[in-house]
Amino acid sequence: MAAFDYYFSTLSPYAYLAGTRPWEIAARHGAEINCRPLDIMTLFARTGGVPPGQRHPSRQEYRLIEMERQAARLDMMLNLKPAHWPTNAAPSSYAIIAAQAAGGGDMGHLVHSILRACWAEEKNIADDAVIRGCLKGAGFDPALVDSGLLAGAETYAQNLEDAVSVGVFGSPFWVTADGTRFWGQDRLADLDAHLSGQAG
C-alpha cells in the first residue's frame, strides 16, 4: 500500500482548512496517511520561520486576509482570532499519536475535529475534556488521552527531527514515499495529481 507522511500542527489554521481532504485523496489512491503532529514554533525556529505574532504588521494583516479568503472559498467556519490560540499543542498531538497507534477509529475525523475545536468552536484543545470528546466522536477510546504520554512525547519530538531532516518548514506539509514535498492546503490538488502519476 502506498503511504505518505502528513506533518502538521494542531494549532495550524491551514491544517484546519485542509479538512478531511487528505484522507479523501488517500482513499482514492489506496494510500495510508502517517500523521506526524509536531511543535510548529520549534520548527519555525529550526528552519528560519517566524511565529505569526512576531511577523511584520503587514504580514500579520495579510495572513488574516488570506485565512478569511480561503475559508470563504471552502465554505468553512473560521474564527480569525480564536479564544484559545495559541495554546499548548502537545496534549492534542499526543492523543493523535496514541490514536494512530491504537487504530480502530477514523483518523481524518479525529484530526479535523481537534483543529475545528480550535478554529471554529472556541474550545481549548489543551483541555483533556475537549480531547476526549474528539477521540470519542472519531470512534477512539477517550482514555487514550491518559495513556501513552511518554511514547507520545518521544514520537512528538522525533516527528520534529524527521520533519527538519526531510525539508519540512511549515504546516500542513505532505511528503510522499519518493520524497516529493507539498506545502499548504492549497497544494492538495498537486498531491492528488502526484499520487496519480500525473505530476512531479
Question: How would you sum up this structure, described in words?
Answer:
- The structure is a single chain.
- With 200 residues, the chain is α+β, with helices and mostly antiparallel strands.
- It has one domain: Glutaredoxin.
- It has nine helices and four strands, in the order βααβααααααββα.
- The protein has helices at 13-18, 21-28, 40-47, 57-74, 90-102, 107-119, 128-137, 149-166, 188-195, and strands spanning 2-8, 31-37, 173-176, 181-183.
- A four-stranded mixed β-sheet has the order 2-1-3-4.
- Helix 5 (90-102) runs antiparallel to helix 6 (107-119), helix 5 (90-102) packs across helix 8 (149-166) and helix 6 (107-119) packs antiparallel against helix 7 (128-137).
- The longest helix has 18 residues, at 57-74.
- The radius of gyration is 16 Å and the shape is globular.
- The protein starts with a strand and ends in a 5-residue tail after the last helix.
- The mean pLDDT is 96.
